[in-house]
Write a structure and sequence with these properties.
Layout: E1 7-12, E2 15-20, H1 25-31, E3 55-58, E4 65-66, E5 77-79, H2 83-99, H3 114-122, E6 138-139, E7 145-148, H4 157-166, E8 171-174, E9 181-184, H5 201-205, E10 211-213, H6 226-238
Parallel strand pairs: 1-5
Antiparallel strand pairs: 1-2, 3-4, 3-5, 6-7, 7-10, 8-9
Helix pairs in contact: 2-3
């Protein structure tokens, strides 16, 4: 039996705020106009804390905690902005760029890319780590869409929206560490998938140019995530 939610008080950046015990730090911060950057998080999908951009400091904890997946507690003291966090977030973004092949000038999502926006937000103007230049797959076997692993940041938004909203369970993650890749079905070409409904939800929630619509030129791929809010509005009306 689940514990009923109750009202508590916590501190965000020296500011005392009210919250419910079933809320996360990120939810409470956003309710109070406090910006905590994220990449893998998307309202309407279950949080997984994959990108580590939203890490915050919690007084009394010896490690940084993901704001999107950490529930608030009574009396909690949270620091969302500090020199340590800024440095850490910049390094995470830097590693994301270094581990893939993110050539912004020729990307379909140039100027419409959340990773690009995060580089600007964190002040990452160049890399101090060497590029890995991995030789990754581009799957254009689907009639309508393209998957480019070179631009994937493993946020798993596509995996979650396909499972939680569309219910097709087409996407999954294969491998671990730097060898991890997002795959369709049992590592079949996307165009041969028996489960894909061609709904385009995965494409629309992708924060980079890893998933795109065929025929898009550089800087043309704008993502439209409004369907998530519409979906949950309808679910609430049904209940």
């Amino acid at each position: 039996m689940s514990t009923p939610s109750r009202v508590i008080t916590l501190t965000l950046d020296d500011r005392e705020v009210g919250a419910h015990t079933d809320q996360t730090i990120l939810e409470v911060a956003r309710e109070n106009g406090i910006v905590i950057p994220t990449l893998c998080h998307l309202e309407g999908l279950l949080p997984i804390g994959a990108c580590r951009i939203c890490l915050v400091e919690v007084v009394g904890s010896n490690k940084l905690l993901p704001a999107c997946a950490t529930k608030v507690t009574d009396g909690m003291r949270v620091i969302t902005q500090s020199e340590r966090l800024t440095r850490y977030r910049r390094r995470v973004v830097e590693f994301l760029f270094a581990s893939g092949n993110h050539i912004c000038a020729v990307c379909v999502s140039n100027h419409h890319c959340e990773l690009q926006d995060m580089a600007v937000y964190t002040g990452m103007s160049h890399l101090t780590e060497p590029y890995r230049y991995p030789k990754l797959r581009v799957d254009a076997s689907h009639e309508r869409f393209v998957q480019d692993d070179n631009r994937c940041i493993l946020c798993q938004r596509c995996v979650r929206v396909c499972a939680e909203i569309e219910g097709a369970h087409t996407w999954d993650v294969m491998g671990r560490g730097i060898e991890a890749r997002v795959i369709t079905d049992l590592n079949q070409p996307w165009g041969e998938s028996d489960t894909c409904t061609s709904c385009s939800k995965c494409v629309q929630v992708c924060p980079t140019g890893a998933l795109s619509i065929k025929g898009m030129a550089a800087a043309e791929m704008k993502k439209r995530k409004h369907f998530l809010a519409q979906y949950w509005t309808l679910k609430e009306e049904e209940s």
